[in-house]
Amino acid sequence: MSLLNSMKKVNMNQLAKRVSTHWRGLLAGLVIAILASVTLSLQIATLIDGQNKFESETVRHLEVFPDPTERMINAPYLVPAYIVGNSINNMLIGARITSVVFGLLATVALFLLLKRWFSVQIASVGSLLFITSSWVLAISHQATPLILLVIVPLLLVVTLTIFANNKQHSFWAFMSLVCAVAVAFYVPFMFWPIAVVIAAIILLYRKKLAALSKKQIAIAAIVFAVLLLPLLISITQYPGQIKELLGIPMAIPSVSQYAENFAWQFSTLFFVSQPFPELYIGRLPLLDIFSVAMTILGVYHFVKYMPKRRKLSFAFLVLILLIIVPLTTLYQIPMTAYVAIIYVFIAAGVYELLRQWFSYFPRNPFARNAAVVLVSILIGMSALYNLQKFYIAWPNSSETKAVYVVQSNKE
User: How many other CB atoms are there within 10 angstroms of residue 171's CB atom?
Assistant: First the structure.
């Protein structure tokens, strides 16, 4: 009994020590989680009447949920959406709730990644801009699997980072990476980020892999095979799904069309977008002026200061998506995979802005505090602009109403 009490005392002391060491991160994470719960889920049922054509397609699939072996693409989203939709007897709202939950998980993954790469403060700033982004809010309010293109790249990068840096629990870090890769195989376009992650493990982190025992690798291989089995069964019956998973369309675009789509990617992010009222408002770019500036500064920071291995892995991830996304005529859909990348760059940009300012004024507290206040104001203005853009401008846009009303009338 005394031994049990002493063990409890030791565990409590360890917990207290961890809390006292990481209280800033815990507090920041709690605040971000509360804000994310509000912004990502607000008015998911009442923001706009009806449903768009992409949501209608999801709902039709859920209402006649087939044998899982027939089609397992996007199963990590569709299975929980089906369960939630059945439990509340509303497939549309069930799917939207599922999107919100995945959006919250994506916020957690982004926070953890930025905390590891930068600091708690930058993780808080990056996560705040993420959960108030009109682009992210539009995705999290959709009853579609689009949210998987946000969370899966984050899971891959986070688990790879943990595996690369974890010294005490290498096996469990490797297992988390294996599970993330297995889940990613179910999502269209994610084969290519998976290829980058596997290449990084083999070429950059092979010493970490070699440190694992044969038994540990065998266990991981079995778990991977079990997780992937439903998809493999589905593909053997319907091989046409392979193209969809690779992100290769039935008809390859011409060179001129590909070049046009390639250019529109950048224009949609930074300058002007093509009409896509299901997600965008008018022809406004996806990013506000502050986010554009921080993205550019963040790219500079990555090129100049990031460790070589991290820089190479991230560069190849960006490059391969830039090549694959324009193959799709409706390129706005796979462009969702850029969300995580963009907000990592934005956070890096804020970090670089403050780093440069502090390097010019290393011992001037007034100048340092002025920089923090100024950046905080800019972040607040960016967040407020995006919230107004999504919650006020987007649902009241005539183009948005037309898409939703027409689709709703067809039901």
Answer: 17
Nearest in space to 125 (alpha carbons), one of 31, 52, 211, 202: 31
E runs forming strands in 104-201: none
For the entire predicted model, the pTM comes to: 0.89
Which has more pLDDT, 184 or 309? 184
Amino acid at 319: L
Q: How far apart are CA 223 and CA 174, in angstroms?
A: 12
How do the domains of the chain map onto residue ranges?
Answer: 47-410
Which residues lie below 8 Å from residue 310, measured CB to CB, with a gap of 6+?
117, 161
HEC letters along 6-34: HHHHHHHHHHHHHHHHHHHHHHHHHHHHH
Lowest mean pLDDT among 217-221, 290-294, 367-371: 367-371
Contacts 24+ apart (CB under 8 A), 259-262: 261/325, 261/326, 261/327, 261/328, 261/329, 261/331, 262/322, 262/326
Closest CA to 79 of 104, 54, 98, 60: 98
Local structure of 70: helix, strand or coil: coil
The 10 Å Cβ neighbour count of residue 264 is: 19
Report the 3 state secondary structure along 358-406: HHHCCCCHHHHHHHHHHHHHHHHHHHHHHHHHHHHHHHHCHHHHHHHHH
Cα 341 to Cα 339: distance, rounded to the nearest angstrom: 6
The token pair at 105 is 């998980």
